[in-house]
Write a structure and sequence with these properties.
Number of helices: 1
Order of helices and strands: HEEEEEEEE
Strand content: 35-45%
Distance between the termini: 43 Å
Low-confidence stretches: none
Bound molecules: zinc ion
Length: 136
């Protein structure tokens, strides 16, 4: 079994604000981040697609106690976003004060950019993750 979309390719694209995923040629389901088999039908015939990076906040959490090595990033908000194409993707939320975050965030539309964060003692180097911001 070969990887249609490697993590390396996925994260390189993310650094250009491009969100790549996989679309199953059997059932049409879209997944991201990359996986080996379709999340719906376990099929392996998948094509690489570029997603819009637009979605809806389904839940969130405000983080006030950082993981080791991430103290400088606190406080921050992590959101779980249902993308317009179907998959759910986790990322940071930009532009909202974590102390002022309320349940009103749930259901808001967001668009994706990216955030580069420095490596810590548990990672091989710098990383990149989705960074969402509200759209009006
Ligand atoms: Zn499928």
């Amino acid at each position: 079994m070969e990887y249609r979309l490697t993590s390396k390719t996925y994260y390189e694209a993310l650094k250009q604000d491009k969100l790549l995923g996989l679309k199953c040629r059997t059932c049409g389901a879209v997944t991201t981040p990359p996986v080996m088999v379709c999340r719906e039908c376990a099929g392996q015939d998948m094509a690489v697609v570029e997603l819009k990076g637009i979605g809806t906040i389904r839940t969130f959490t405000s983080v006030f106690v950082a993981a080791e090595g991430r103290e400088s990033e606190c406080p921050y908000i992590i959101v779980l976003v249902e993308l317009d194409e179907g998959p759910w993707l986790m990322g940071n939320l930009d532009g909202i004060d974590p102390k002022a975050a309320s349940m009103e965030l749930i259901g808001k539309k967001v668009k994706m950019g990216h955030k580069v964060f420095p490596g810590d003692k548990y990672s091989a180097g710098e990383g990149v993750s989705p960074l969402f911001s509200l759209v009006d």
